[in-house]
Every structure is written in C-alpha cells, then in structure tokens.
Amino acid sequence: MKTLLLIRHAKAASYGAEPGDHGRPLATKGTDQARKLASQLQAANVFVDLALVSTALRTAQTWQWLFQGKAGNEAQFIEELYLASAEQIERQIELNKKSFQTLAVIGHNPGLSVLAWKLLAAGVDHDPVAERAVRAAFKTAFAARFDFLGDKPKLVQLFDPRVG
Fold first, then answer.
1. Is the model's pLDDT at 44 over the cut of 70?
2. Are 82 and 60 contacting, i.e. CB atoms less than 8 angstroms apart?
3. Looking at residue 164, what is its pLDDT?
4. Count helices and strands in the chain by DSSP H and E runs
5. 118 — alpha (psi -120 to 50), left (phi > 0) or beta?
6. 117, 128, 129: which is closest to 153 by C-alpha?
7. Three-state SS for 52?
8. C-alpha to C-alpha distance for 30 and 33, rounded to whole angstroms
C-alpha cells in the first residue's frame, strides 16, 4: 500500500426502515455530501484499488456514491469495521495493505479520527493547518489521504464536501 484514504460515511438519517443503528440509510444531506466528495476525489485523480467498508447501510451507500461502477474499484464489506476502534481498523488495513497500491477505509467515528490522529503523530512533514483540521473533527463525508512512500505516513490531502 502506498496510499491510504480514511473516509467517514456521509450524513445518516435519524432512523431506517428497521429499528437500530446498523440499517440507517444516508439522509438527503448525506447523499449530497457523498456526491460532492466523489467530485472532489475525481478532481484530485484519487482512485482506489480496494475499499474496506463497514457493513452499515450508510457506509455501503457512501461507497456506492464514491466508487461503485468506477474501473478498478473493489469493495470488501467487513462486519468488524462497524463502529470499529482505531486498532480494529488498523488490523483490517494490515491484512490488506500488501496487495493494493491505494486502499480506502469507509467507516465510523471515533475509530477513524483516532487512527488519523495516530498516523499524524507517527508521520512526517504535515501541514499544521491540515493537522488542526483533522484534530478538530472528522466530520461526516470527511476524508484524509495519507501516503506511505517512506517509512512514515504523510498526510497529503484532506477532502471535505462542505468546502469548495
């Protein structure tokens, strides 16, 4: 893996067709966020080989908006990523990183934001403004791109559908 993209799912509806959190779909605001984020990723020429996706409906729908139908984009829907901790996310990345150049994880907070903070702390040459943005909040449909060209991660780009 040379590039890791951490993506928090887009805004979910307050409830779904069935009781519980797992089946909540994207809200109208969430589909708008996902569409905007897809445009930002495309404009930045960000393509993924594999997306590791939580099995929650809102993460699956976010993946569909971002990557489904685009050449070379494969998804693995992983139950362990549903509301996963940073350590659980890291385990899934470790299992898949050697087979792919660009790996995306579409999941939930707080696990994604904690992992982003850990990568920042272990990383090199990051922009202080970008660091503050990551540390402030990993809002819905927010994405952070880390490159692993050296032995340490480097935050190289942030994507936020609320900007631009």
1. yes
2. no
3. 66
4. 5, 6
5. alpha
6. 117
7. strand
8. 5
Distances from the Cα of 97 to the Cα of 3, 24, 40, angstroms: 9, 29, 24
Q: Where are the domains of the chain?
A: 3-9+23-159
Residue whose C-alpha is closest to residue 6's, from 69, 66, 80, 68: 66
Per-residue pLDDT reduced to its tens digit, 59-82: 999 999 998 877 667 899 999 999
Instruction: Report, at the CATH architecture level, how domain 3-9+23-159 is classified.
Output: 3-Layer(aba) Sandwich (3.40)
CA dihedral 136, 86, 30, 154 (to 10 degrees): 60
CA distances to 55, 112, 133 from 155, in Å: 27, 14, 11
How big is the CA angle at 41 (ends 148 and 67), to the nearest 5 degrees? 95
Quickly tell me which residue has 């903070």 as its tokens: 117
Taking the CB of residue 96, how many other CB atoms lie within 10 A of it? 17
